[in-house]
């Protein structure tokens, strides 16, 4: 007899709805198995044939960390394309490479942690390279395009499952796990939530990752916004994945909870479904969840809810239906199409900032001097894959103009380091050492990649080695040996010329020269501090190393400069028709994850090179290749360009733009400020109050949001706008190429509410389109927009409101280059006074404030306001309706201090001094006499370390 095949369980039946299949699988999993699924590395359940699964595969601009892959421009560069169709194709290519790489390496995950939709509010944020724009509309448009490409176009199955990062209001690396972003309701709803919301509502997002920081005093990993907003935007089961080690931070660094069991339970209940903590070791998270269960802090229903969301993603990825998965046999990896797309994306990302007297494009036969620290570089960043192909500006200009027409000077300082014994640091030969690119083998956690120890350590001898010294700014420098390897320090502490590039989670290739002022010492004497370890370099018998100074004293070096970089730059610049200075940043140094910048200024070394080049040849073009904006004076330069680090085709793209093979049409995705003085504090998240971003900035930027020039010229006209059914706004205008080359233009549409009773943006992007026009060609650009794009968050009603009146529609080539305008009038909803007699005032629902910050009312929900640093704060609430009159005011407060209630037009204030409470969440209610009627503005003045939650009126 033939044994019968047992029937497949319902969770294996693709004909059943996913919800029923998940119900069946959940019912078959034991509680211990379900708990184990809550860690990032969910184990296999062999008895059910369920494979292991991990959340998290970095794929910000290509598959990262898992070895060679196609590398596209940085995210901020993709944002600069202003081209959703292009970015959709990039996402499609990246997801295909994820699938192709997973087929040969099951460490590659299908739950991709990308894109980053944090808004580029502050240009000194270290992770500026990861975002798309300072504008929520542009950010959501680009993010939606990328996620749709990552998801794939099958109606049921997803190629990859994208997770948006980093929820919420996260723009600082300084103290990122302990600082709180104070976000007033209008900024929350009109700005920070908006980029996430519009992307989630588009339907191609599998989940989000909370950020390390706190918002309004509460860690993002226990934020009620996950439930109240995120999960209300879609019917899909969104998977919320914690950031790495963030669950432990709730206790260890933030001290928000006393125990890890409390913290884990609170995060799970708030909506975190997958815990990324302790690497591949799931035992600690499992123990914490089990402890929370035994203490009654969690129920099995809480566990099941989170596991259900993970399983929903796994079912959509086709894991349980391999025979029906349309993406199972994807093999597209490093294809000619992907290489061409990487080049196209890099070309579209180039922004022409300035072009006086048609300096660009460069005609054939031009003698070009290519100079600068990035002229022969193709830089990767922390979230890049390992480059398979690379092109540098120098290589590409050689190819485009011919080697006989191109000269090069890197501009490094050529130095030797003399020891106190009179010898010099020396790099021993290593003829048999293989060339190894960092990360080429791939790693689940590249932070754990160790430095090379197969090369000899540096020594000291009579002749020494000439090093190329680059000062990247703020005193941080690299030293490179003649063979191209950077000095680096491995785990054994020895200094070797071993790194192909600076890199790693903790960069081991950077140093500082510290003046040594000991009595009798030479003024050119220095200690050499290794930044990664914080230790000084010493010279010992067995080699050069960084060591504990109790064991080995630091070496005192004399810096011998053989040639300053500007000397070589001057020589080649003087012989050229045009000089191209390629300046910018190394993405691993001075501005990256874990490290904010301190200034907008171009590093002094690179400024020296730019000044020298221009002095030798006034026809000097500045090409900035950077992850963020600079405040650099280009007034005397005839031309300037900017591009983000453009991935594998960066050099080719820049050369083709310089040569005119491509007319540049990238547009700035964020404001370029002229000076550090234009910036608010890094931790000031109130873009309205501090007038941040193009939306509210009242100064003169170096270059405005949306700026970018072309080799063509364009005319705008025939702007019309009309409303329909009180729901839709239809806008159209014509754009004509009035130049003599085919080129792209990015047509931008902004709105402005000139008669608004509250502070509204100076102008706000509502739509854009990148179009290609041949000379003389004209096209009509039309947009159909919901009237809701004109709404604002009304703190008086706690909801969005369309105010009646006139709204300007502004069409043009940037936020400041408006070519056509018209006005529409909408009926809207008139404002009404605040019904304070019935509802009182929520402390955080102010119209304006000074000196205060929003904090958590309780650990679970609600907001309160406190004076910053226990000082003084004033809160303004306009148009408060007291009706026929009240006689008493009550305040709900915690802590100690004084609350004054001041009515506009009144001679006296009500002063309330509560009895101090023991803790920040121990609230008390205090009453005082207050006689008032009619509609008045109310000012609350707070003094001392108290928290104000609510103000009530009665009598």
Please describe the structure with a list of short key phrases separated by commas or semicolons.
single chain, 955 residues, alpha+beta, six-stranded mixed beta sheet, six-stranded antiparallel beta sheet, 18 helices, 50 strands, 20% helix, globular
Walk me through the structure.
Strand 36 and strand 37 (799-801) form a beta hairpin. The strands form 15 sheets. This protein has a 6-stranded mixed beta sheet, sandwiched between helices. A 6-stranded antiparallel beta sheet has the order 20-19-16-27-24-23. The protein has a 5-stranded parallel beta sheet with strand order 3-5-6-8-11. The mean pLDDT is 96. 53% of the residues are buried. It contains 18 helices and 50 strands. The chain is globular and about 90 Å long. The protein starts with 17 loop residues before the first helix and ends with a strand. The protein has 955 residues and is α+β, with helices and mostly antiparallel strands.
> What helical percentage do the residues reach?
10-25%
Percent strand equals 25-35%
Q: Briefly note the structural class of the backbone.
A: alpha+beta
Any idea what the shape is?
globular
Distance between the termini: 90 Å
Cα radius of gyration in angstroms:
30 Å
What is the topology, as strand order, of the major beta sheet?
A: 12-30-29-28-13-15
Low-confidence stretches: none
User: What composes the largest sheet?
Assistant: 6 strands, mixed
- For this structure, the quaternary state is single chain
List the total number of helices. Answer: 18
Average pLDDT number:
96
Beta strand count: 50
């Amino acid at each position: 007899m033939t044994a019968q095949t047992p029937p497949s369980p319902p969770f294996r039946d693709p004909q059943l709805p996913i919800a029923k299949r998940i119900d069946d699988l959940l019912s078959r999993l034991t509680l211990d198995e379900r708990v184990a699924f809550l860690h990032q590395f969910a184990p296999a359940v062999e008895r059910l044939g369920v494979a292991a699964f991990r959340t998290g595969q970095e794929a910000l601009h290509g598959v990262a960390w898992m070895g060679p892959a196609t590398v596209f421009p940085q995210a901020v560069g993709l944002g600069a394309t202003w081209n959703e169709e292009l970015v959709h194709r990039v996402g499609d290519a990246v997801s295909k490479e994820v699938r192709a790489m997973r087929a040969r390496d099951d460490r590659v995950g299908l739950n991709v942690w990308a894109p980053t939709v944090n808004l580029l509010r502050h240009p000194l944020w270290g992770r500026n390279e990861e975002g798309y724009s300072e504008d929520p509309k542009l950010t959501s448009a680009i993010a939606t395009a990328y996620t749709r490409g990552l998801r794939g176009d099958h109606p049921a199955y997803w190629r990859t499952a994208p997770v948006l990062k980093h929820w919420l209001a996260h723009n600082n690396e300084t103290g990122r796990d302990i600082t709180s972003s104070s976000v007033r309701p209008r900024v929350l709803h009109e700005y920070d939530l908006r980029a996430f919301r519009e992307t989630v509502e588009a339907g191609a997002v599998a989940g989000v990752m909370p950020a390390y920081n706190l918002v309004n005093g509460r860690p993002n990993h226990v934020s009620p916004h996950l439930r109240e907003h995120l999960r209300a935007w879609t019917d899909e089961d969104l998977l919320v994945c914690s950031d790495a080690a963030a669950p432990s931070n709730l206790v260890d660094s933030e001290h928000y909870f006393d125990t890890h069991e409390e913290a884990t339970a609170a995060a799970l209940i708030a909506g975190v479904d997958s815990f990324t903590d302790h690497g591949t070791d799931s035992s600690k998270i499992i123990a914490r969840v089990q402890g929370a269960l035994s203490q009654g802090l969690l129920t099995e229903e809480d566990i099941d809810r989170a596991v259900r969301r993970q399983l929903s993603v796994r079912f959509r990825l086709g894991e349980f239906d391999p025979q029906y998965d349309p993406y199972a046999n994807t093999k597209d990896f490093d294809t000619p199409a992907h290489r061409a797309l990487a080049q196209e994306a890099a070309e579209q990302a180039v922004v022409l900032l300035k072009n006086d007297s048609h300096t660009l494009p460069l005609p054939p036969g031009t003698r070009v001097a290519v100079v600068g620290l990035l002229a022969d570089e193709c830089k990767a960043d922390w979230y890049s894959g390992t480059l398979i192909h690379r092109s540098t500006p120098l290589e590409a200009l050689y190819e485009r103009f011919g080697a006989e027409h191109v000269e090069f000077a890197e501009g490094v300082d050529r130095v030797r380091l003399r020891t106190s014994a009179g010898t010099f640091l020396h790099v021993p030969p290593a003829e048999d050492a293989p060339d190894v690119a960092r990360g080429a083998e791939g790693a689940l956690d590249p932070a754990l990649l160790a430095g090379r120890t197969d090369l000899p350590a540096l020594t000291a001898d009579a002749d020494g080695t000439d090093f190329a010294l680059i000062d990247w700014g703020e005193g941080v420098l690299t030293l490179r040996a003649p063979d191209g390897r950077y000095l680096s320090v491995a785990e054994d502490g020895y200094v070797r010329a071993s790194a192909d590039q600076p890199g790693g989670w903790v960069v081991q290739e950077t140093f500082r020269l510290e003046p040594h002022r000991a009595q009798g010492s030479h003024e050119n004497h220095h200690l050499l501090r290794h930044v990664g370890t914080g230790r000084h370099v010493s010279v010992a018998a067995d080699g050069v190393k960084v060591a504990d100074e109790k064991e080995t004293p630091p070496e005192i070096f004399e810096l011998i400069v053989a040639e300053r970089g500007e000397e070589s730059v001057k020589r080649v610049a003087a012989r050229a028709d045009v000089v191209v200075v390629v300046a910018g940043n190394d993405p691993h140094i001075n501005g990256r994850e874990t490290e904010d910048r301190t200034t907008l200024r171009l590093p002094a070394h690179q400024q020296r090179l730019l000044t020298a080049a221009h002095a030798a040849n006034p026809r000097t073009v500045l090409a900035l290749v950077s992850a963020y904006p600079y405040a650099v004076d280009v007034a005397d330069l005839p031309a300037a360009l900017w591009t983000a680090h453009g991935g594998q085709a960066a050099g080719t793209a820049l050369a083709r733009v310089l040569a005119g093979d491509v007319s540049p049409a990238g547009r700035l995705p964020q404001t370029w400020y002229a000076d550090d003085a234009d910036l608010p504090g890094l931790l000031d998240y109130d873009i309205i109050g501090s007038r941040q971003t193009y939306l509210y900035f009242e100064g003169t930027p170096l270059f405005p949001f949306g700026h970018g020039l072309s080799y063509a010229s364009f005319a705008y006209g025939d702007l019309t706008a009309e409303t329909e059914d009180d729901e839709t706004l239809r806008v159209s205008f014509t754009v004509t190429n009035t130049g003599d080359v085919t080129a792209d233009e990015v047509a931008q549409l902004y709105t402005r509410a000139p008669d608004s009773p509250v502070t509204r943006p100076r102008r706000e992007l509502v739509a854009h389109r990148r179009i290609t026009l041949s000379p003389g060609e004209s096209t009509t650009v039309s947009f159909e927009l919901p009237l809701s794009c004109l709404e604002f968050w009304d703190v008086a009603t706690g909801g969005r409101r369309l105010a009646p009146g006139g709204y300007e529609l502004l069409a043009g080539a940037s936020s400041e280059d408006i070519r056509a305008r018209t006005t529409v009038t909408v009926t809207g909803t008139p404002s009404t006074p605040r019904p304070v007699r019935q509802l009182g005032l929520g402390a955080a629902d102010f119209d304006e404030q000074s000196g205060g910050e929003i904090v958590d009312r309780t650990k679970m929900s609600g907001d309160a306001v406190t004076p910053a640093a226990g000082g003084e704060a004033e809160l303004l609430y306009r148009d408060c309706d007291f009706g026929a009159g009240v006689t008493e005011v009550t305040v709900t407060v915690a802590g100690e201090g004084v609350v004054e209630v001041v009515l506009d037009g009144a001679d006296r204030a009500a002063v309330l001094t509560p009895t101090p409470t023991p803790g920040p969440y121990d609230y008390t209610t205090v009453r005082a006499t207050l006689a008032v009627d009619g509609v008045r503005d109310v000012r609350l003045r707070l003094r001392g370390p108290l928290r104000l939650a609510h103000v009530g009126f009665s009598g």
